[in-house]
Design brief:
The structure is a homodimer.
Chain A lengths: L5 E6 L1 H4 L6 H12 L4 E7 L3 H12 L4 E5 L10 H9 L3 E3 L1 H13 L6 H4 L3 E3 L3 E3 L8 E6 L2 E6 L3 H17 L6 E9 L3 H13 L5 E7 L2 E9 L3 H16 L6 E4 L4 H12 L3 E5 L5 H6 L9 E7 L2 H8 L3 H7 L4 H15 L3 E7 L14 E8 L2 E8 L4 H24 L1
Parallel strand pairs in A: 1-2, 1-3, 3-8, 13-14, 13-15
Antiparallel strand pairs in A: 4-5, 6-7, 7-8, 9-11, 9-12, 10-11, 15-16, 16-17
């Protein structure tokens, strides 16, 4: 079997104007990548019929698989289907079953069925329908001169279910060669340092492809290699991960789908322990990240958001003298926040954070981005001072993830 | 002056593989849009020299302004500069000042200066340097046959500062015609209903362009029109906004940069009042959204994350009988959470939320996505039951934003 390649096309003025991020094509790329069909180019175009036709010509000339998203909703910037009919010189076909379903669906949700929705039961004659269980716009599969065109609505969760439920099974039959990969996640180490450290290790292998992907103050090293057997792939991925992790075990915290909230959840469950949070500048973000994980109620019961000094005193028992002498952004205050959070929640572990998120409120001694992050178990505390940047949201995120990483280390240490 | 158009090119295997979202091009598009230079196409390509050259040919053939991002960092997937030298048939030029700055910068942050970083002081001979105050990779401006190429690093905050600080001032001098727009934000009303309602209003105007942009369970209607005088634009935008808002004043909550956290902050400041939060299934997200806003300490002092029943009792004084009789996900529990949060924080207003975020934990009576959202002032409560979907993160977001919208309505009501 030959190596198939893909091109993705997104339609939508809102994508061009920058108002909406093109997360759809990112999802499609990941899924195609997993079955060994690399996306070689992506293009984003406006709601302009001629541009859609030109893009189809351009994509069919370069790739075997073409996906087209956007332009199928009920609103009037939706022109894709009529363009497809023009492009392939076919008419529209009404699917009576779909029309019935559509009407029922609207009735069930208590919405009025309007004429602009009826067109969603019509599709170009040369298309096979790809079932979309979550919405009214079905996907389409059109075979064209030995190539495959897949067309989907732009609503992310509908696009996702059509991609994984319909498109991937169709394409999986056509491809065999695939790429395996391992994503290695690091926090608190600059990209250039990570590159310098990992290069000699990765250079030992042939045929690797390596990319450094920064996000939210963290970096992911993505290492891809040609797939062999699933067992051999697994072994190679494990080996690469462990070799890289050993370079900076405090900073390299996980791989693939392992996020810090998932990892601390796993560690806490293993120990049958719980964690509480006492947050000032992160304002509830740490608690929200922890509870993004399904099943987190097993190890998270209580969080304190103590934004004001009064609340640090009343909810956590921080002493007025401590706040007066050292300020709210200090090691002494965070230490008392940790102690108070443990005592008042009954949890086994605590995270506490106090800092200057910015963009205002900095001083000479504690400029914007100064954050004290603490973690504690019963009878043990660790507090670190960080100096982040000027962006409020990024400072919240980096503080929160740094705290989760410190908790991970504390939990792993307690384990060994 | 003629209407200029732009094409954006992003380089990076990580963008093609879907690992990273292309937020850079979205930012660039917004900025260019504001000065009346629409982006007509966007393309994303891999780290392949031939593809970069082909894209430059393709883009110069269609647009006046071309931007190229990615591929300037210190890691080895960075090939852009050498491709530019090949494309324009020029050599690299070393900037000694930049080399000095680079070395100083590394020393100051305590990192080792490595050889792979030295190349960041070299740029193609035909490029003008665009100062990047936040990083080591400078931007470039290359004039080519009457067209403009701008090249930037892929790190978002560096790309942003080079775009707004350098590129936009250069291009502003070349353009005059511009587009004005108003974004109208709605929550709790489906896109198709919003379309049906707003169409007759918007059809009264000529020359409008309308897009419906769904996000996190909310929809933004973006209305654009050719710019006239700034006063006339303002008047038209105001008029359109008010006409649309009056269709559904409870659901249409704001315009342009007005997010719900910003709006409730503004209303609370006006009343010199404060708000507290008591969160179960949202797990701190409401508090985190409120504290995303600089200056929120003026009106937010305390948040309770009461994930467990025990904590609802101990921190908020919810009665055991209430939890036993009605369950944690109930109007009765949320009512006591509101009362407890007000009493124990001393705040003037409260938000309380309890629901089944999912994907597990649903029952016949209260399926996944069932959420009770309450808001209260002194002596007044309002609690609503919502039925969201099966996605945990989306359920958290929709619950949080629905709560903020209910608080907005309560604050506006109290005002009039």
């Amino acid at each position: 079997m030959k190596q198939l390649t893909a091109i993705t096309i997104s339609i939508g003025d809102e994508l061009l104007s920058g108002k909406t991020l093109d997360s759809n094509n990112a999802f499609i790329s990941k899924q195609l990548d997993l079955i060994g069909i690399p996306v070689i180019k992506k293009i984003i175009i406006g709601d302009v019929p001629q541009d859609i036709m030109d893009s189809l010509d351009w994509a069919f000339a370069q790739a075997d698989v073409v996906t087209l998203t956007g332009g199928l909703g009920p609103t009037h910037d939706d022109i894709t289907k009529s363009v497809l009919c023009d492009y392939f010189e076919v008419g529209l076909k009404l699917y009576p079953d779909l029309l019935e379903n559509l009407k029922e669906r609207f009735a069930r949700r208590g919405f009025k069925f309007s004429e602009s929705n009826a067109s969603q039961a019509e599709y170009p004659e040369n298309a096979s329908i790809l079932d979309n269980p979550l919405g009214t716009a079905q996907g389409m599969h059109i075979r064209h001169e030995g190539k495959h065109l897949f067309v989907m609505a732009g609503v992310p969760r509908e696009m996702e279910i059509v991609t994984t439920g319909q498109i991937i099974p169709i394409l999986s039959k056509l491809t065999q060669r695939s790429i395996s990969k391992v994503d290695i996640h690091a926090i608190g180490v600059p990209e250039s340092t990570l590159y310098e450290l990992s290069k000699p290790v990765l250079d030992e292998y042939s045929d690797l492809k390596v990319a450094y992907l920064p996000k939210q103050g963290m970096v992911t090293i993505r290492v891809s290699f040609p797939s062999n057997s699933s067992e051999a792939d697994q072994k190679l991925a494990d080996e690469i991960y462990l070799n890289i992790r050993d370079l900076k075990p405090k900073n390299i915290y996980g791989r693939d789908d392992e996020s810090l909230p998932i990892l601390i959840g796993r560690l806490l469950k293993e120990k049958q322990a719980s964690v509480t949070t006492a947050e000032s500048c992160t304002g509830g973000l740490v608690a929200s990240l922890i509870t993004d994980i399904s099943g987190s109620s097993d190890y998270f019961q209580t969080g304190f958001v103590t934004y004001a000094n009064e609340t640090k005193m009343s909810l956590l028992g921080v002493l007025e003298e401590t706040l007066f002498e050292h300020g709210a952004v200090s090691e002494a205050t965070v230490s008392e926040m940790l102690e108070g959070a443990l005592n008042r929640s009954g949890a086994d572990y605590a995270i506490a954070i106090s800092g200057v998120a910015g963009p205002t409120g900095g001083t000479e001694e504690k400029p914007v981005g100064t954050v004290y992050v603490g973690v504690a178990g019963r009878g043990h505390q660790q507090i670190k001072r960080f100096q982040f940047g000027n962006n409020r949201i990024l400072n919240k995120e980096m503080s929160a993830f740094s705290a989760l990483n410190m908790l991970r280390l504390l939990l792993e240490e307690a384990q060994s």
